[in-house]
């Protein structure tokens, strides 16, 4: 007769984490996060900076392609006052434009590019009054040349949260607190005045200047000769292609808690030169810039930009965060304009 025995089941109690062990694990995780987050943030910053350089490289390549197709001319508005222009809109209809002077004709050309290239269709875009589009909107000519849709991502810095937001709904610009519909089509990359303005002022008044030295305020006097018109600059007029900036990031947003404009002594900016090379440069290393006076007699000192009165500008940034009233215009106002130099050597023009 067989007998069997049943072994008793042995239960092993499982011990959980003690409070001390749990706190140690949490501390280790917190330590790892504190180590990794800055590295991840730096990686994101580097990627965005690389995108800035890639966008500016497109600007530089387009500059040279445009020049090759249009007899060495740089991209600038070409419509003239007193002439009639007719263009086909997105809906197939034609619109005619006529203006009394060259600047107003350029404003019409900029508006026409926005109306034809916008997605969604912005056929009702209104031309702002007293608009000198050459200053902040010359990139529209390049985007039209490459048949881009507007607002075009390559004209926006990945650090520029304001313009990225504006581009999401350019037609209903009022909801962003913008005064005019042109701002969603503006660029984070400012094309230097040398690309469209004469190299010097003249006795008979041809000039583009910083109006009263006030930041982002300009005035233009066409003078008595057509040779002082805005636009019509040739790349062959640039004596130092590797030292002359074509376009640059206007605000440093990638470092520190407070954005700095390019004239700030601690600012770094991405630039593309006239030879299409790109780099990140300290604007403090740039020549101070400047331009002749109208009489050619007064001291030829650097053009200064005033940030007074302090207060927020269209971007929502404080234009004078540190109470420094005036700074040299540097890249924006190269001494000698297209004939001058921004980086790599001293001014080559005798003052």
Structure description:
This protein is α+β, with helices and mostly antiparallel strands. It has a domain at 47-76 and 138-339. Helices cover 24% and strands 13% of the residues. It contains five helices and twelve strands. It has a four-stranded antiparallel beta sheet. Strand 4 (207-210) and strand 5 form a beta hairpin. It starts with 18 loop residues before the first helix and ends in a 23-residue tail after the last strand. The model has no long low-confidence stretch (mean pLDDT 82).
What would a concise description of this structure say?
This protein has about 350 residues and is of the alpha+beta class. Helices cover about 25% and strands about 15% of the residues. It has helices at about 20-70, 100-115, 135, 140-145, 160-165; strands at about 85-90, 95-100, 190, 205-210, 220, 245-250, 250, 260, 270-275, 280, 305, 325-330.
Largest sheet: 4 strands, antiparallel
Q: Given the helix and strand composition, which structural class is it?
A: alpha+beta
**H/E element order:** HEEHHHHEEEEEEEEEE
Mean pLDDT: 82
Q: Helicity, in percent?
A: 10-25%
Oligomer: single chain
Strand order in space, largest sheet: 3-6-9-10
Number of helical segments with 4 or more residues: 5
- The span between the termini is 123 Å
Percent range for β-strand residues: 5-15%
Shape, principal axes of CA atoms? globular
Task: Annotate the secondary structure layout.
Layout: H1 19-69, E1 84-88, E2 94-98, H2 102-117, H3 134-137, H4 139-145, H5 161-167, E3 189-191, E4 207-210, E5 218-221, E6 245-249, E7 251-252, E8 260-261, E9 268-273, E10 278-282, E11 304-306, E12 326-328
Antiparallel strand pairs: 1-2, 3-6, 4-5, 6-9, 7-8, 9-10, 11-12
